[in-house]
Amino acid sequence: MISVTNVSAQNRRPQERRMAPDSTQIIKMVDNLAKELSLTDTQKAKIKELHLAQMEEMKANMESGKNDREKMREEMEESRKELQEKVMELLTNEQKEKYTKLMEQRQNQRPPRPQR
């Protein structure tokens, strides 16, 4: 009698780290947001600029490596909140309502973070 055992641990890829979005992803995201909120060209350009600036800030923080993980997570969360506030300042009241709903939906779609 022959026994066959599948060792799946060898087939698994190491868990990839989630990196900050690159400029291509940001452009796509802002384009989608522009469609969903009916942004003007000026709003779209300013929002894209805000997101790109945040991306550079996040990259610099990650590359510096001097922050511990928890502190970096807190800084990124604070940066995200600041970005949302700045975006809200650019929107009309109707767009603000839509944006708030979109952000809530996206937040609810994220899987819970694993405990470490």
Automatic annotation (TrEMBL):
Residues 59-104 have a biased composition (Basic and acidic residues). This is LTXXQ motif family protein. The lineage of its organism: Bacteria, Pseudomonadati, Bacteroidota, Bacteroidia, Marinilabiliales. Residues 1-12 have a biased composition (Polar residues). Residues 1-20, 59-116 are annotated as: Disordered.
